[in-house]
Amino acid sequence: MATSRKTKKSIAASPNIKLFVLDTNVLMHDPTSLFRFQENDIYIPITTLEELDNNKRGLSEVSRNARQASRTLDEIVSAVSDDIVLGIALEAPSHGLASGRLFLQTEAINVELPAGLPTAKSDNQILSALMFLARREPERAVILVTKDINMRIKARALGLAAQDYFNDKVLEDSELLYTGSCELPVGFWETHGTGMESWKTEGHTAYRVTGPMAEHFLLNQFVHLGGVPPFEAWVRKLAGRTAVLETLVDFRHEKNSIWGIIARNREQNFALNLLMNPGIDFVTLLGQAGTGKTLLTLAAGLAQVLEARRYTEIIMTRVTVPVGEDIGFLPGTEEEKMTPWMGALEDNLDVLNGTVGENGQWGRAAAADLVRNRIKIKSLNFMRGRTFIQKFLIIDEAQNLTPKQMKTLITRAGPGTKVVCLGNIAQIDTPYLTEGSSGLSFVVDRFKGWPHAGHITLQRGERSRLADYAAEIL
Description:
Layout: H1 5-11, E1 19-22, H2 24-29, E2 41-44, H3 46-54, H4 61-78, E3 88-89, E4 101-104, H5 122-136, E5 142-145, H6 149-157, E6 161-163, E7 181-183, H7 188-192, E8 197-201, E9 204-210, E10 222-225, E11 231-239, E12 242-247, H8 266-276, E13 282-286, H9 293-307, E14 313-318, H10 334-338, H11 343-353, H12 360-373, E15 375-377, E16 391-396, H13 403-410, E17 418-423, H14 439-447, E18 453-457, H15 465-473
Parallel strand pairs: 1-2, 1-5, 2-4, 5-6, 7-10, 13-17, 13-18, 14-15, 14-16, 16-17
Antiparallel strand pairs: 3-4, 8-9, 9-12, 10-11, 11-12
């Protein structure tokens, strides 16, 4: 289709500046994506605006994001007095985050798509806009950005450039995610022990070491070195090339058992040191099925609620994403509706109740009732606006949360509250979330090095030999 000289000139730009065509699902996934393309330009087809309008009604996260994206676009367009055909500069609305321009579709587009791609379908209309722009501006890259895998495949089949939305990804490879611990090299003490100081502090031994490796440590990172006995500590202070390492409580010993539970491996010991330390407000535990995430967390929570009385109660929540077909409406109160989703809680409570006391069946039943009365099960749907004071908050299956949902939950924490996030980023059930864009990966990366947060990735399964072998080979 022929275009006016003015329109051609308005979109023409440096060949180094790319033109990104946004699919609707990108805006509904991240409403701030308009400001995430730095110096590059953005093009919004009319079809994208229509799909935003169709999805704005409702109370779901997608509907909220659609409304926010529409409001953001309205603010950008309303503030412009010039002809929007020339493109809208994003530097001012983005507060300096983006320096490119926003283009809205202001003309009819007539591009013949291959037979078999009906033009009435929204995805195909966006593809026709992409093809139109690619033909009109051959001197620079015109790229479709979409979370829809099949949409990307169709675009590439038509010879068009397409890619996923990467800005929400903390990392490209989950293998690069911070593990919370590192093994010291064999010659660590020779290279870092010169002028070393050591002293006792509250039953622990602290070492002030200086050397090149200290520059790469993070606060509350665990370090270990093999030997007899092995050296295990965590980083408590950092100053340039100097770090203070402090030895740990050994929760593998029976005298330090927590609610009858002892650590079975090194990483579980690291986890219990985080969970039992009152100076750590935020803990993230990652690990495959059977590594003990929920059991350790519940044991630490019960010990601090019922024995140390550091917290008033345990609050547990999780994302209600079914693995198979949804079983439909669930009757009852909020807690009764959440009960089918809390099978992991019930299983672990059975283990923990069996470790308390030797008072026979009646004594164990009374202890079980006491424990259950101090654990509250809450739904994520009713978390907004709440404040939890002096609670032990457990967020289970946190890998299914988006970064925005994670922010909503963590900011519920009031004075004296500890938040623990558990999950396995290899088991994500939420559409459009990946290992790199999961809210759990997001908080692990953002909180690393904060003095009141800690993370550990549990490596070894302790559930059963069958579970461990299945997790390894399947």
